[in-house]
Amino acid sequence: MPEAVLNLLLIPLIKIVVLLGVVLLIVAYLTYAERKILAYMQVRLGPNRVGPKGWLQPIADGLKLFVKEDLIPGGAERFVFLLAPGLIMVPALLMFAVIPFGEPFKVGGRTITPYLADVNIAILLLLGISSIGVFGIILGGWSSNSKFSLMGGLRSAAQMISYEIPMGFAVVSVLMMAGTLSLVGIVEAQRQAHIWFVLPGILAFGIYWICGVAETNRNPFDLPEAEAELVAGFHTEYSGMKFALFFLAEYANMMVISALATVMFFGGWLPPFPNLLAGLWASPVLAWIPGVVWFAAKMGFFLFCYIWFRGTFPRYRFDQLMAVGWKWLLPLSLANVMLVGVLMLWWKG
Amino acid sequence: MSDEKQSPVQPAEEKTPAPKPPWEDKPVPPVHEDASSDADATALAAAIEGALLAADRFAGELTLSVPYEKIREICSFFKEEQGFKFLVDLTAIDWMDREEGRFDVVYWIHRHSDSKRIRLRTALPLEEPIDSVVPVWKTANWMEREVYDMFGIIFEGHPNLERILTWEGFNGHPLRKDFPVEGIDTGAAIYPDVYPPGGGPDAAEEGA
Amino acid sequence: MSMHDPLKPLFDVEEMEISFGPQHPATHGVLRVQIKLDGERIMEAKPIIGYLHRGTEKLFETMAFPACIPHTDRMDYVTSATNNQGFCVAMEKLLGLTIPPRAAYIRMILAELQRLASHLVWLATHAIDIGAITPFFYTFRERDAILDLFEEYCGARLTLNTMRIGGVPFELPEGWLDRCSAFIEAFPKHIEEYETLLTENRIWKKRTIGIGVIPAEEAIEMGMTGPPLRGSGVEWDIRKVFPYDRYDEIEFDIPTGKNCDTYDRYLVRMEEMRQSVRIIRQCIEKIPDGPIMAKAPKVLRAKEGMVYASVESPKGELGYFIVATEKGTTPYRCRVRPPSFVNLQALPQLVEGALVADLVAVIGTLDIVLGEIDR
Fold first, then answer.
1. What is the pLDDT of residues A219-246, one digit of tens each?
2. Last residue of a domain, which of A50, A67, A84?
3. CA A102 → CA B14, B134, C37, C223, distances in Å?
4. How far is it, in rounded angstroms, from Cα C348 to Cα B72?
5. Chain C residue closest to A148 (CA)?
6. In angstroms, rounded to a whole number, what is the distance separating the alpha carbons of residues C327 and C332?
7. Which range of residues forms the domain containing residue A268?
8. Chains A and B touch (3+ CB pairs under 8 A)
9. ipTM of the assembly?
10. Is it true that the peptide bond before A220 is cis, omega within 30 degrees of 0?
11. Nearest residue on chain B to C238, alpha-carbon basis
C-alpha cells in the first residue's frame, strides 16, 4: 500500500470514525450522566428501568426519537426548517477536528496523533465555526412560525453575539501567553512554562468559563430555551430526530467548551501540577498513565460543573444577562488583556 | 338526675352537675336583631336621605339594606367618610319571585382601624341596571363581571363588562334559579331574545 | 431626501400578541394571559380565566349542607383542609354550633399542615418558574411526608374531606401526634435547606427584588389578601383579626414585608412556614381530651338568614357566604370568596412594563390555583 494513501486517507478516515463514534457516544451518555447526577442532587433516583441502573436509557431515548413521527408545522418555512438542525449539528461536530486529546503515540513504528488536525490557526477556526451554530438557532426559531420559537431564537442570537466578544478577549490573553494559535502549541507552551495558564490567567479563565456556559445556552443562562417562559424556546416546534439533533448539538457544544477550557487553561493532556509534582509524574509508577486519561478527567470535571450549575442556579432575566455581558465581562476582559500584556513585558524583560 | 329535682334553689356545686359545655347542648341558632342604632347605620341615615331602609344584625353581622339607585353614592360615603377601604366581596342572590325585586346585590366591606365589617344589601328588579362601584373600589371589577356573568345583572359605568367564567356568547346566566343544574343546550337558548340560537359549543350532547 | 425623525422608529414596529397559556408550563393550570409585547416588554396583559369552571356554587344549591364539604375540596385542591374549614366555620356560625375544643385543635393542626403543604407547592413552582429546579424536589419530599400524615388520619392525600359541620369525623390515630411532632421538629431544618439555595442567591435576588411591586394602599384597593398583602407591609391575618376555631389561644406572629415586591412576598411565605410550625407545636402541647363532634341534629336545618365567615387560607382570605331559607337543608346560595381570584386581578397592574420573564415570576408570587379561581 502506498505510503501516501495510508497517511492521507486511511489513517484520517479511521480517526474520523473513531472520533465521531466516541463523541456521539459520550454525548449520549452525557445526557445519562446529567440525569443521574441531577437526580442524586435532587434526592431521587433518575433513570433506572432500561438496563442495569438505567445504562441503556440513552439508547432507548435515541431509538424513541428516531422512530418518532417527524412533524413540520403548517406555516413553517420548510427548507429552512429542515436546514436548521443540520446547521447547528455540523459545526458542533466539526469543532472536534482540531481539539488535541492527547500526546502523539507510536503504533508499529508510526506516529499517530490523537487529533485530526493540528491547524496553526485552530482557535480562530473554532471561534469562527462556533458562531455558525447560532444561525441554526435563529433560523430554526424563525422558520418554525411560532412566536415562542422566534423569541427564543432572537434571545439566543443576542446572547451568543454579546458573549462571544468577552470570550474572544479571554482567549486572546491565552494566546499572548502561549504565543501561538495552535491548540497543540498552547499545550506545549504550558509544558515548557511548567505552569498551567489558569494560574496567571485566572481572570481570563473565569471570563471564559462564564461566557462558555452562556454560549452553550445552559443554566443559569438558558434563556433561549427557558421553559417557564418560552415553552422550549427555539426548538418548541421540533420533534423526532430533528429535535434530537438540537439536543445532541447542545451537549456536543458543552464538550467543546469543556475541552477548550482543559486545553487552554488546564494543560490539556498534561498531568496536574507540572511545576510542583514533575518528579512524581516522571516516576515509572505513574508515567504510564496516558495523557488522554488526564484530558478526560479534566473535561469530565467541567462537564460536571455544567450539571452542577443546572442543579443550583435560577435563571437570569434577559436584560440582566445582557448587562452582565456588556457591563461586566467585556470591560473586565479588556482590562485582563492589558494586565496580561503588562505582566508579560515585566516577566520577559 | 334526681339531685336536680330535690333542690333547684341550693347553690351546692358538688351536687348539681356543671352546666353542659355548649358542644354537648343543642345548638343555639342566631337570631335577627334590629341594629338601626349602630353608629355607621345612623351616620349613613344622617348623611344620605333615604339611604337606610333597614338594619339587621344576624350572627353578629351587620346588614344594611339600601336602595339600589343610590348604591355608588352610599359606597363612596362608606369608603371616603367612614374609612371602609376594603371591599371584601361582592355578589348577588336570586330570589326568583320576590316582589321588591328579583335580585339582592350584596357588598361586604371592611374597615381596618377597628376591623368592622358591614354587609350592604340592595334589592334589584330584573332587567334593571345598577351603578358599578368600580370607581369606588378597583377590586370590584372582576367581581362585578362575575355577577354579570352568573346573574345577568348589568353594572352601569363598568369599564369592561364582559363574561368572565363562561365564554362570550354563552346562553344564559348559570346562577339564576331558573337555570337548570344539569346545564342547558346552549344552542337552544333559554334567553333567545338576548342570545341568538347557536352560540357556543353544544353542552347538551355530551351528557345532561 | 427628508431627514428621518430620530424619535420615530425607522421601521414600522408592530406589537406582538402572545397567548400565554392555557397550555403553558408556567401558568399553573389553565390560566391564559393575553400579552402584548414590544420586544420583550409587556405593554398589556389580560388574564382570561374560566377554563376550569365547574359551577360549584350552583351545585351547592342542590346539596344538603354536609354534602357540600367534599366539593369544597375541589376548589383549591392544593389546600383542601382549609377549604373544608372555611365551609364548616361558616355553617357552624349559621347553625349556632360550638365545636368541642379537641376538634378545634385537630382542625388547626390539619389546617396548618395544609398551609405548609400549600406553601411548599408554591415554593417549588415559583422556584422552577425562575429556573431553579432543585427546590422542587426538596419541597415535594417534605410535602409527601405531610400527605402521609393526612393519609394516616383520613385516608386521602389530596382531597381530604376531613372536617364536618360541628367537629371532625375521626379521632387521631394512635401515635399520630408523635409522628406529627417529629415531622414538625425536623421541618425548620428543611426550610433552611431551601433558603440556602435561594435566599442569598444573587440571581434569585436579581430576579425577584423590585419585581411586581404593589404598595400597601394599592394592594388594599385591589382587595388583595394573604401573603401578597402582607408582603406589602400590611399586618393583616384573618387568624388574628377574626379568630376562628381556637386561634385566639395560640401565639404566633404575622410576618410582613417592606418593599412590596416578589422577594418580600417570598420571605413572608418562608416566615409563615416557621410560624405554622410554631402553631402546630403549641397545638400539640395544648390539645385537650374530649369529644370531637358537637351534638348536632341528624338533619341540619338552618334558620332564615345569611352569614359570611372567612378563614386564612394559604392564599389569602377565603370566605364562605351562605344564604339559608327557613328550615332549609341546602344552601339557598353559597358564594365562595376565592383569594386567588381577587389576587389575580392585580396581575395586569403588577406586570405592566415588565419583561416576559417577570410575568412568570409574578404569576408564581401570587400563588394562584385555578380550581379556586374558576370554581
1. 787 776 666 666 667 777 788 888 888 8
2. A67
3. 97, 74, 51, 67
4. 25
5. C18
6. 11
7. 72-348
8. no
9. 0.81
10. yes
11. B115
